[in-house]
Amino acid sequence: MKTKSPPTRSPDSGGPSVLSEKLRSPALFVGFVAILVAAGAGLLIGPAGIDKTAAIMELLDRIPFISIDSGLSQIQKNIIWEVRMPRVVLGALVGATLAVSGASYQAVFRNPLADPYLLGAAAGAGLGATVAIVTGSGDGIGTFDVVPLLAFLGALIAVALTYLLGYSSGTQRSPAALLLAGVAVASFLTAIQTFIQQQNVDTIRQVYSWILGRLNTASWDEVSLLAPYALVSTLLILMYRRTLDVMRLGDVEASSVGIRPQLVRLVVICAASLGTAAAVAVSGLIAFVGLIVPHTVRLLAGASNRIVLPLSILFGAAFLVLVDLLGRSLASPAEIPLGVITAFCGAPFFVIVLRSNKRTLG
Amino acid sequence: MNLCVARGVDVRVGQKLILDNVSVSIEAGEWVSVVGPNGAGKTTLLSVMAGLRTASGNILIGDRDLKELSPRERARLLAYVPQHPEIPPGMKVDSYVLLGRTPHLSFLGMEGPDDFRLVQQVLEQFDLATLGQRTLESLSGGELQRCHLARAIAQATPIIFLDEPTTALDLGHQQQALDRIRRLREEHQVTVVMTMHDLTLASQYCDRMILMSEGQIAADGTPSEVLDPDRLSDLYGAHVKVLNIDDHLVVVPIVGR
C-alpha cells in the first residue's frame, strides 16, 4: 500500500523556501525592538523625576561583569527596581498573555471576533473579584489577597461551565454551540455581579476600578504569581502553532489530515483560559488587547499562526507596557485605568490598520 | 487486491436511514465513480469510507480496521477533498498545499527539506509554482480546484476520496481536472474514489461506477454495465438515452417523451 513518490526532479536547493508564511527574523527583530523601547520608556519615565542617564547607568550596573556607579540614592534605586521594574514586567506578562490567548481563541474558533474573554473568563473574574471586595475579604493588593484568588477561580469556573454547557447542549459538538454557551454564561454571571454590586454601593468605586484594569499595585509578588501560568499557557499555545494552522481548514478537513480538532480546541482553550485567568487576576479586566494585537500582527505580517502567535507575544507585551506608561503619565499623578486607554487608543488604531491594509482577516 | 472494503455499513440520521447495509470493495489502482440522484447517499458513503463519519459496520483499509487506526495513521492512508473545501482567509497557496504533509509530521515536528521538496514538485505538477505566494481567495475556481487536489496529492496516500471534484467548473476545466487526476493516477499509482453528478464524464474517465439510490447500491460495474437507460430513467425519475459515440458513452436527457 505504498504510493510512489512524485517524479524526482532536481531539488531547487538554492531557491526560495516553499513556505511563504514563515516567521522571518526581521519581524522577530522588530518585535524585540518594540519590547526594548517600551520597557526602556517604562523604566525611565515616571513622576519621581529620576535622571534618565543615571537610571540607564543603574540598569547597566545590574548586568553581570559590569559595575557602574549611577549616583542614585537608595530610594531612587528602589523606585527603579521595586516600583517601575515589576510594573513593566507585569505589564509585559499581562499584555503577552492576553494577546497570545486572543490569537489562539481566534484560531480555534476560526472567528476574528474571538477574544480571551469570549467564554466568560471576564464575567467570572468580575464576579469573583466583586464578591471578594464587597465581603471585605481583600483590598486587591498583595500576593495572597482574596481578590486575585477569587477572580482567578471565577474566570476558570466560568470557562469550565461554558465548556460543559456548550458540549452537552447539542448533538453537534460545534464551536458555535460553545460560543453561544459563552454568551449565556457571561450574561448570567454579569447579572449576578451587577446585582451584588448594586446591593453594596459603598464598594462600587473599588469594584469599578478593578473592572477597568490597572497595574498600579504591581509588585514582584504579583509578577511571581502570574509568571508560572503565563509561561505554561504561552508555551503550550506555541507548541500548537503549526496545528492551529491546520485547524484553519475547519474540523472535517483538519480531521482528514490527521488532527483531532476537538482535542486541540480543548487543550488550547484550557491553556489560554489559564493564562487569561491569571492575567485578569493580577490586572483586572483589560479589554481589547487580545483583539487588536493579533489582528494588527495578522494584517502586517500574514495570517499564519506560526507568525501570529509568537509576534502577538512580543507586540502584546510592548503594547501594554506603553499603554500603562500613557495611563500613568497623561493625568499624572492620577492614573487613567488601563482598559480605558486600550480601548481609547486601540479602537482608532485598529481602524487605521484595517483601512490601510488590504489583507484579509484570519 | 482489495484496498478498501466496506461491510454492512448503516448510517442513520434520526429515523432516516441514509446508508442501508452498504457493502463495497475497492481494488488497488481502481478509479471508481459513485453516482446517483441527489440524496442517494453518495457523499455519506464517501465520508464514511474516508473515516470522517461514524457508521455501524466495518471498513477495512488493506488488512486494518479503520476504527483501530489513529487519525494520523488514517490520514497517511486516505486523503479526502470535500465538495466545498474551506478557503482559510489570507492563506497562501504554498502553505495550503504544505498542510497535506501534516500526517507525516510528529506533534512537535515541523516540515523538513523533504516535505518542502515534495510540495515544490507537486506545485509544479499542478502548474501552481508561480502562484505559490498568492492567497487562496485571489485564485479562480479552476486554480482553486488544482490547489485542493495538490494538497491531497501532497498527503501521499494510496487512496484519495474526491467529493464532486468538478462541481462549479466549466466544461474545459472539468476535463482538465479529470485529465489531471488520470495522469496523477498513472504517475503515483493512487486509487481514486469520487462522487460525480455528470454521468457522461464519469463514464469516460472511470474504470468502474457504483450507482446509488436511497442509501443502497443499485448497480455496480463497468460504465457500460451500469448505464442502462431504463435503470437511469427509473432511478433519476427522468427520461434519458445512452448513446455510444466513438466508443464513448453519452447520457442524454430527452424531454417530453
Give me some keywords for this one.
heterodimer, A: mainly alpha, ABC transporter involved in vitamin B12 uptake, BtuC, disordered N terminus, B: 257 residues, Rossmann fold
- How far apart the termini of chain B lie comes to 45 Å
How many E strands of chain A? 0
Fold-level CATH name of chain B? Rossmann fold
Indicate the percent of residues in helices of chain A. Answer: 55-70%
Number of helices of chain B: 9
Radius of gyration of chain A equals 22 Å
Largest sheet of chain A: none
CATH architecture type of chain B: 3-Layer(aba) Sandwich
CATH topology of chain A: ABC transporter involved in vitamin B12 uptake, BtuC
Order of helices and strands of chain A: HHHHHHHHHHHHHH
Please name the fourth-level CATH homologous superfamily of chain A: ABC transporter involved in vitamin B12 uptake, BtuC
State the gist of this model.
The complex is a heterodimer of chains A (362) and B (257). Chain A is mostly helical and 362 residues long.
What does this structure look like?
The complex is a heterodimer of chains A (362) and B (257). Chain A has helices spanning 25-44, 52-61, 74-109, 121-134, 146-169, 175-199, 204-211, 220-239, 241-246, 251-256, 261-283, 289-301, 305-329, 338-356. Chain A is mostly helical and 362 residues long. Chain A has one domain (25-59, 67-356): ABC transporter involved in vitamin B12 uptake, BtuC. The longest helix of chain A is centred in the first third of the chain and has 36 residues, at 74-109. The relative contact order of chain A is 0.16. Chain B is of the alpha/beta class and 257 residues long. Chain B has one domain (2-253): Rossmann fold (3-Layer(aba) Sandwich), CATH 3.40.50. Helices cover 33% and strands 29% of the residues of chain B. At the A-B interface, helix 9 and helix 10 of A face helix 2, strand 6, helix 3 and helix 4 of B.
What topology does this entry show?
The complex is a heterodimer of chains A (362) and B (257).
Chain A: H1 25-44, H2 52-61, H3 74-109, H4 121-134, H5 146-169, H6 175-199, H7 204-211, H8 220-239, H9 241-246, H10 251-256, H11 261-283, H12 289-301, H13 305-329, H14 338-356
Helix pairs in contact in A: 1-3, 1-13, 3-8, 3-11, 3-12, 3-13, 4-5, 4-6, 4-7, 4-11, 5-6, 5-11, 8-11, 12-13, 12-14, 13-14
Chain B: E1 2-13, E2 16-27, E3 31-35, H1 42-49, E4 56-61, E5 64-65, H2 71-77, E6 78-81, H3 93-98, H4 113-125, H5 141-154, E7 159-163, H6 171-188, E8 191-195, H7 199-205, E9 208-213, E10 216-221, H8 223-226, H9 229-236, E11 240-245, E12 248-253
Parallel strand pairs in B: 3-8, 3-9, 6-7, 7-8
Antiparallel strand pairs in B: 1-2, 1-4, 4-5, 9-10, 11-12
Helix pairs in contact in B: 4-5, 5-6
